[in-house]
Each structure stands twice: as structure tokens, then as C-alpha cells.
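Model the whole thing, not chain by chain.
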Amino acid sequence: MSKILVAGGAGFIGSHLVERLLTLGHEVTAVDNFVTGNLKNLSHIVGNLKVIDHDITIPFDGEFEIIINMACPASPVDYQNIPLETLWVSAMGTKNLLEIARKNKAKFLHASTSEVYGDPLVHPQKEDYWGNVNPNGPRSCYDEGKRFAESLIVNYQNVHGVNARIFRIFNTYGPHMRANDGRVIPNFVSQAMAGEPITIYGDGKQTRSFCYVDDLVDGIISVMNAEKFSGPVNLGNPKETTILELAEMILRLMDSKSEIVFKDLPQDDPKIRQPDISKARKELNFEPKVDLESGLRRTFI
Ligand code: UDP
């Protein structure tokens, strides 16, 4: 049993992680400012859980053995609505958590993202790819915030000896996503359910690789428990899908008659994305188990 702090513990992925940690018998403190997270995501959970309403960009203290940073808006619509908060949480929020880790000699885990690869020119993306990011484009608040956080963590590790572990999350879905968070799966499902047109941005040939949240949480737990860990590791499901295929699958699964309409592709929208997970497979024994169709059924049907 460890005393664990989960920042962003009321968010989509954070809340699933909190639930798993409690099931494993840990004592968990979830800290969240509820900007994109929701207390409802934790309300059904029983166990040794404390919830703190706090913005991690403001320094705070506590005694923990493990700190897991899941705090940051992750939907492009969300982070472009609050770009400065997104930058601050990645910069000051991460710094404040690293300080707690340094003082407690705690293990520090950090949720980074496939967005550090930007609109990638290498496919699939391996951890040693440096990425293709527009430093001042509409997605930069998230991409560069997360890249800064990675640099901050690596340098805290070098200067202060913090035991830090970075994992890069690729597109993830499952229960607790907000229906209106603007991401593709909640949008398509809400539209299909309401019989409204399905909005594909661009021609729908862009790709993403979608991971069911339980599989992702398996990966995060393996990162936490690994005896040895070096460098960032990709976590995601390598099965790649076009956005048009995704729309057709959701229409079929939901037996919806919604038509598909094509809208402008947002600026800097990555054209392809697929994780190379050979490192996670080799070092963490990570293997996603839930295919897209079963995951969508578990989520929405
Ligand atoms: N997308 C879409 N229709 C929507 C929402 C998103 O076609 O209603 C596209 C979006 O342009 C992108 C992909 O779906 O190519 C995934 O978008 P999302 O916002 O879920 O996350 P991203 O992977 O871009 O961070």
C-alpha cells in the first residue's frame, strides 16, 4: 500500500486511475480544480480516497510516496478555450508537483502526450522521434506545454535526483468523457444519438489510434510498478483507423441514420498518428486488449 497523489484525479483518465489504485489497496488523494474534471467521475468510488479542490499552479504540500500528474485539459477544443491555463498547469503545476516529489523523495509519474510529436513526419511514432510541432500555432499551448513539462522533469531528475517516469498517452476513450468535450468520439456519438449530422473535419482520411481507457490504465500501473524505467514511453493502442472509418463504425453500432457532413480541417490537425509501442511491450509487458468496436460498445451502448 502506498500513499499516492493523483493530480487531475477527477478528470476522464485520472478518475479511472484513481479507481484502479483504490482497488489495488492504495491510499489515494485526488487533487483537481474541476475546470475539465468533474466530482461525479469519483462519486461512485469506495475506498481510501480524499478529494482536494485545488489548482495545482498554486504551491501546496502533503506527504506522498508516489505522485501522478494527470492534470491538464486534453481536448483540443478545451485547451484552445483556455490556452493560458493549459500552459500554466503544464509549467507551474508540474513544477509544484515536482517540488512535493523532491521533498518527499517520492516517485513522480507524468502524463505526456502523442502531441509532443505534433503533425508527425515519421510513422508510426517511436519515443526517439523529436516531432514536428508548430511552436506558435493553435495547438501549441498544449504541445509546447507538454514538451516544456518533459524538459522540466528530465532536468529535475538530473539536478535533484527525482525518480521520474514519463508516459506519452495516445488518443484514449471510454466512460467519463464529457459528451461536449469536442473530441471526435464524444462528438460522433452525441450526433449519432441525436440524429444530427456527423461532422467530419477534412476528408476523413486522417488517422488516429484509439485506446480503451482500461488498457491505458494497465499501462500506467505498469509504469508505476516497473523496477527499472528509462526515458519516456508511448502508451496507446497501435490499431490505426481513419476518421471516416470511425464515423461509419459509430453509425453502424448505434444503428443511426445520421448523414455525414464534411467541414474544414482545423489548422495543424495531425494527418496521421499511431504509437509504436515496442518499448512498452518489451519493458512493461504492455498489450492493449480491447478492440475499438468492443470499447465503443462498453462506453456508449
Ligand atoms: N474530428 C472530426 N470531427 C469532430 C471532432 C474531431 O472529424 O467532430 C477530427 C479531428 O479533426 C482530428 C480527429 O478527429 O483529425 C481527432 O480529433 P480529437 O479532437 O478527438 O483529438 P486529437 O487527436 O486531434 O487531439
